[in-house]
C-alpha cells in the first residue's frame, strides 16, 4: 500500500504508424531505411502511481535522421544498442 510505481516507455510515429522495437536485424534495417533522411516523432510516456494518486504524461519530440548508408546500419547494429529499443535506436547512442 505504500509503494510508488514508476513506469515509462517510448514509441515512434512515422507516416501514421507506430514503430516499436525491432524483431530482428532485418526488421531493424527496414525501420532505419524508413527513417533515413527523414523526420519522425518520438513519444515518451511516463506514469507514477501510488495507492491514492496517479499521474501520467506523454511528451512528443521531433527527430530528424541523416541519410543512413548500409555501412552505418551494419556498424550500429554491431554495437548491440538497437536491440529492445523503439525504432531500433537510442538517441543517447
What does this structure look like?
This protein has 93 residues and is an alpha+beta fold. The chain has two helices and four strands. The chain has helices at 25-35, 70-78; strands at 5-14, 17-19, 39-49, 54-64. Strands 2-1-3-4 form a four-stranded antiparallel β-sheet, with helices on one face.
Keywords:
93 residues; alpha+beta; four-stranded antiparallel β-sheet; 4 strands; elongated
User: How far apart are the termini?
Assistant: 38 Å
C-alpha-based Rg, rounded: 16 Å
Q: Describe the strand arrangement of the main beta sheet, using strand numbers.
A: 2-1-3-4
Strand segment count: 4
Order of helices and strands: EEHEEH
Provide a count of the helices.
Answer: 2
Report the sheet with the most strands, covering strand number, pairing sense and barrel closure: 4 strands, antiparallel
Task: State the secondary-structure class.
Answer: alpha+beta
Mean pLDDT: 95
Percent range for helical residues?
A: 10-25%
Oligomeric state as shown: single chain
**What proportion of the residues form beta strands (DSSP E)?**
35-45%
Name the poorly predicted regions.
Answer: none
Brief overview, please?
It contains two helices and four strands; from the N terminus they run E-E-H-E-E-H.
Amino acid at each position: 500500500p505504500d509503494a510508488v510505481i514508476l513506469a515509462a516507455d517510448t514509441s515512434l510515429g512515422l507516416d501514421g504508424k507506430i514503430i516499436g522495437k525491432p524483431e530482428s536485424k532485418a526488421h531493424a534495417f527496414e525501420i532505419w531505411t524508413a527513417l533515413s533522411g527523414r523526420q519522425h516523432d518520438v513519444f515518451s510516456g511516463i506514469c507514477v502511481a501510488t495507492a491514492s494518486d496517479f499521474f501520467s504524461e506523454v511528451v512528443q519530440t521531433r527527430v530528424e535522421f541523416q541519410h543512413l548508408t548500409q555501412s552505418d546500419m551494419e556498424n550500429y547494429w554491431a554495437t548491440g544498442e538497437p536491440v529492445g529499443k523503439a525504432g531500433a535506436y537510442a538517441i543517447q547512442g
